Amino acid sequence: MDEQVKRLIAVTPQPRQIAWQELEFTAFIHFGMNAFTNREWGDGSEDPAIFHPSRLDTDQWCAALCAAGIKAVLLTAKHHDGFCLWDTKQTDHSVMRSPYGKDIFRQLSISCKKFGLKLGVYLSPWDRHDPRYGQGKPYDDFFCAQLTELLTGYGELYCVWFDGACGEGPNGKRQRYDWARYYQVIRSLQPGAVISVCGPDVRWCGNEAGHCRPSEWSVVAAGMRDNEKIHEKSQQADDDAFRERTIPSGEEDLGSRQALAGIEELIWYPAEVNTSIRPGWFYHPEEDEKVKPLEELKKVYLQAVGGNAVMLLNIPPNREGLFAVPDVRRLCELGDFIRGSLSRNLLEGARFSASAAEADHPASLLEEGKGYWKAPDSQESAVLEITAAVPVCARYLRLKEEITRSQRIEGFILEALENGEWRTVCEGTTAGYQRIVPFSEPATAQRWRLTITASRAGATLKALMLH
Ligand code: FUL
Q1: Distances (CA, A) of 270 to 297, 306, 307
Q2: I need a labelling partner for 70 at 20 to 30 A (CA). Which of 170, 174, 220, 292 fits?
């Protein structure tokens, strides 16, 4: 085996990264002072007296998230303005000093249990309220104490999300974050939680418009984990145009053999696609008419969840503390699409055979969904023949690699036997945790053929489905 291929396939995920990836579709909730001031970034001088969501109901949030098929939720416990949504003992600047007076993170944690959702937390390192920000260690002490409260008082968390944004500008305060210390606190208190974006476990896809790369690799250069670079990129996030932007040019290809040639340290660093259901991250009444159309959200879902990334969709509660009607409606529509078009596997009961397989990993394991097929490492291409129980009419292909064996597939083609002739139905590049490919037109056949045209050593598949 080629030396580079050997190095590439030696890179595999941590169990916490697999658990996170399996969530597939997750939610962000941006809530706080900004909903009441109608801003996106507060400056920290907001008076807690104005925070009074009159009908806040975390069950309403969770019910709507479940209707969309979402599996986990991240709350902005503290955004850049420093206002805390939980009962913190580290500052007065919190919900406890507001007319609302209750711990919102606590309420959400109770609702999450009730609805079977995982819970995570966004804690902004940039803090425009606390006077310790910019003083070095005193701020790190404060930040770690806040983290400790959140990581010990609310049960198991699946994610801690660190934003790279800081808009202090050249004459502003400078705080050098002690990242290593923050990570240590998280690893010791919540070892199962991933640390995302400015963290070692989950990579920000690089934009807030919902785009990921056509070939999203989870094996990338260790340099992608550089918080300073992430910070630089998200500096531009204050600008509306940025939210519409796609992948930064020069960064379209992060993981091909060519892109990684000569890179010393390689890491498993899977992508997350974060975007908001509305133009802003926080609620603004004038955006009630601007909830993203269903077609756009379907596209983001298929590209992200079907493109080896996790989708993180933001839904901001309004000033009453509820998801607004248009947002709830859209979540239900999206859930209907996912349940209606992408849940039933038309290849249930189908027979699979492969041009080659390792003895322990025959193609027949794909039938049972209990193991995975694997081509021998000497073969960088392979063919799988599929005979469905009955002729099926399909619109989507779904592939899942066994990622504990790394990400290997570089190209594939699906054909259908129609009227005695093989016709190409769709093709693609990477698969990874999961690839979903919509067909340009529906195809009806009983016999199908998947050709892995290229892979890093022997390909693996733990699922091959048609919908
Ligand atoms: C950005 C922040 O500045 C936005 O306000 C929002 O929280 C988004 C998810 O990340 O960097």
Answers
A1: 21, 13, 11
A2: 220
Give the contacts of 463 (CB within 8 A, at least 6 positions apart). Answer: 366, 369, 398, 399, 400
How much distance in Å is there from the Cα of 124 to the middle of ligand 1? 9
Question: What H or E segment, with its residue span, contains residue 400?
Answer: strand 382-400
Ligand 1 centre and the CA of 193: distance in Å?
Answer: 20
Instruction: Note the pLDDT of residue 269.
Output: 98
Rounded to the nearest angstrom, the distance between the alpha carbon of 170 and the centre of ligand 1 is 20
For residue 232, what pLDDT is reported? Answer: 72
**Relative to the CA of 314, which ligand 1 atom is closest?**
9
How many Cβ atoms are within 10 Å of 443's Cβ, its own excluded? 22
What's the pLDDT score for residue 202? 98
What pLDDT band is residue 370 in, cutting at 50, 70 and 90? confident
Query: What does DSSP assign to residue 175?
Result: -
Q: Label residue 244 by pLDDT band (50, 70, 90).
A: low
Residues 154, 156, 159, 160, CA torsion sign: positive
Q: Which of 207, 281, 284 to mutate to test the pocket of ligand 1 (most atoms within 8 A of CB)?
A: 281
Q: How many residues does the chain have?
A: 467
Cβ of 20 below 6 Å from ligand 1:
no
- Identify the pLDDT of residue 451: 98
pLDDT digits (tens, 9 = 90+) for 264-304: 999 999 999 999 999 999 999 999 999 999 999 999 999 99
Q: Which residue has the tokens 């009962």?
A: 87
Minimal CA–CA distance to 82: which of 51, 127, 125, 126? 127
H-helix or E-strand spanning residue 313: strand 309-314
Residues 6+ apart with CB under 8 A from 102: 95, 96
CA distances from 467 to 45, 339, 443 (A): 52, 11, 11
Tokens of 315: 């839904």
What is the CA 121 to chain-centroid distance, rounded? 14
Q: Which two tokens stand for residue 14?
A: 């941590």
Is the pLDDT confidence value at 252 over 90? no
Task: Tally DSSP H helices, then E strands, for the chain.
Answer: 13, 18
Q: How remote is the CA of residue 303 from the centroid of ligand 1, in Å? A: 21
- Ligand 1 neighbourhood includes 163 CB (under 6 angstroms): yes
CB 81 near ligand 1, within 6 Å:
no
Instruction: Report the chain's mean pLDDT, rounded to a whole number.
Output: 95
Instruction: Answer yes or no: is pLDDT of 322 > 60.
Output: yes
Distance of alpha carbon 305 from alpha carbon 277, whole angstroms: 16
pLDDT per residue as tens digits for the range 156-190: 999 999 998 899 988 899 999 999 999 999 999 99
Give the position, in ligand 1's atom list, of the atom nearest the Cα of 165.
Answer: 11
Q: How far is CA 313 from CA 24, 32, 327, 405, in A?
A: 11, 17, 11, 29
